[in-house]
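Thread title: Can someone regenerate the structure for this chain?

I was given the following input by a collaborator and told the matching structure tokens would be attached. They weren't. Posting the sequence so someone can regenerate them.
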Amino acid sequence: MGAQIKVKTDPIFKGIVATLLITGFFILASASIGITTSMKAPPYYFILRQITMGGAAGLILFIFAAKFSYKKWKTWALAVFLGSILLTSAVWIPGLGLKAGGALRWIDLGLLSFQPSEFLKFGFILYLSAWFSSRGGRISSLKNGLIPFLIITGVASSLLVLQPDIGTLGVLAISGLFLFLVAGGKFTHVLILILIGLIFLGILIYLEPYRLDRLAVFRNSEYDPQGAGYQARQALIAIGSGGIWGRGFGMSRQKFQYLPEPVGDSIFAVAAEEFGFIGASLIIFLFMLLAWRGFYISRFAPDSFGKLLGSGMVLLIIIQSMINISALSGLVPLTGIPLVFISQGGSSLAVTLLEAGILLNISKTT
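Best answer:
Regenerated them for you:
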């Protein structure tokens, strides 16, 4: 008699995801007030867009992924990865790509615009999970592990460099590196990859003055306070103003034309100002809970593909979140990437819920 397979999904993981999602909606609703006031738009403009474009689409993807057997993703892994590459490349099609802030990262369909790199991250980790699981112990070899992994990562990374989107590149590369280690990559090979990554990052920083400025701001918080260091400085002011308990929900001052991108990559600073050290710590704790439960689900998956795919989905969510929070806290240079579940961004939220749905499906078999 074969072992019975559970049909119920993990209730703890579902609860964590639901809590983060609802928390994100409330924080975004408050953080967007400053922008909607200056735009003379309805106060619910951003939160309504997030719910309809990110939440609704994400819920559909979440339910689909939770019901769709994760094992079938292995068959579609290459097609999804190639499709995500083509989709990301479409930003260079005249009339389709949307340029903003000096970067060509969005596809504009008129009533709808989205960031295809969100799908590239997902396709990359999905393909790596399938590829690693099919290689077995050969991942530890130079010929069958390190070199092919470098090629796969290089293909995906090149698109992000050209946009440019170095923040997303960092999330993709770090997630892939950790997954390589989980799959059985040799520690010496990991060190080689880190060295190559640092050299490559150094070249990218050297080629663009604004990246050098961000590095200078990271090394000295007083550097160019009205220019390159303005966002980092205002973020620290917002976080520090929150004190222990915060100013209270909706009471942030920095979101009113002081803090750049209060609904985007700076939203954690708004949350810290309104909810204080206690509230900010609770947000971080929720992400740590998601990591704990996600890795727990992945650990007990019945096959190597499930273990790797589940781990990869968790890595994408947690690494991006921790980079965002660390950047606003002055622990790493600013990157411009959003905070998962909380920042404005329909495509980011939709893909994140897809990743969470896959983890739920894996939990049925643990």
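Residues 20 and 267 are 14 Å apart (CA to CA).
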